[in-house]
């Protein structure tokens, strides 16, 4: 254990200088976790039993739900930091737009084209003349549209092209909320402590009266808000292997006994920040030049659906597609598409910055 974990307890604020952290690795693992989690419903249908987390939580929590919570928790923390660094809304908004929309638009447009050419049951003429084809492009502006004409209708998880895109709409609203809170409060500690109390009260009320309504989105927003709070109080948070170990045990016990929402809000955040900054940073050079987690997340679902589609075409009597045969190629192909997307966006940006005539 001493090889991997720091023995001296430091405050989180002391570990934030530079890029010495494990965030890129954790976020890539989270994106791959989304692919793993989706593979059960994509290959076997939405009523499959899923993983241990699905079963013990009564389908309230999955590996994918945990992965999304990772993204939102870190986003709340890092976006709060960005608010303090980029105090003008125009600069803050520009950075958020450039981070989300170019790769999203490329993914959406390529899905429309590739689905029309290789997957849709309609002829290309009928597909590209259908209004539904062009309604799908609203995903480029964070308006979730799940279907394309004649696409994936016979899959076990029918019709849905990219069921992950709802996350981006919620996340972008959280970005704007964070900036508004910063402008109103200046992240003053007293008011943020009051907001933290309101957050806890809201979580308790939801647990009692919410009935699981839109649980995935509610949990994600709560994690984002916790990330904001952790940024504000970063100099008060120790990074201790003992606290991390206790948090890990309590997290799994909470999930095992049906208190998964409480476990996700109380113990899970500490685990994320411990693994992000509290361990020896043996993975701080992982994907140092470019974080591909966003691209993997964007492409995972449609790639998995396409794999099931082609499997059923070539093995019509083969039953459900084996999980491993969906997960492994989907991870590999999503990474390839993520790299293509990232490099394409970079090339376009470089071309736009180049002076005319060069």
3D structure, described in words:
The protein is an all-alpha fold and 358 residues long. It is built from 14 helices and 2 strands, in the order βαααααααααβααααα. The N terminus is likely disordered.
Oligomeric state of the chains in view: single chain
Helix count equals 14
Largest sheet: 2 strands, antiparallel
- As a percent range, the share of helical residues equals 55-70%
- Distance N to C terminus: 55 Å
Low-confidence stretches: 1-7
What general form does the structure show? globular
Helix-strand string: EHHHHHHHHHEHHHHH
Indicate the structural class: mainly alpha
Rg on CA atoms, Å: 21 Å
Provide the fold topology.
Blueprint: E1 10-11, H1 23-44, H2 52-56, H3 63-85, H4 89-119, H5 124-128, H6 131-135, H7 166-185, H8 189-209, H9 215-232, E2 238-239, H10 241-256, H11 260-266, H12 268-278, H13 293-314, H14 323-353
Antiparallel strand pairs: 1-2
Helix pairs in contact: 1-3, 1-13, 1-14, 3-7, 3-9, 4-7, 4-13, 7-9, 8-9, 10-11, 10-12, 13-14
Structure summarized in a few sentences:
The chain is mainly alpha-helical. Helix content is 66%, strand content 1%. It has helices at residues 23-44, 52-56, 63-85, 89-119, 124-128, 131-135, 166-185, 189-209, 215-232, 241-256, 260-266, 268-278, 293-314, 323-353; strands at 10-11, 238-239.
Label this structure with key terms.
single chain, 358 residues, 14 helices, disordered N terminus
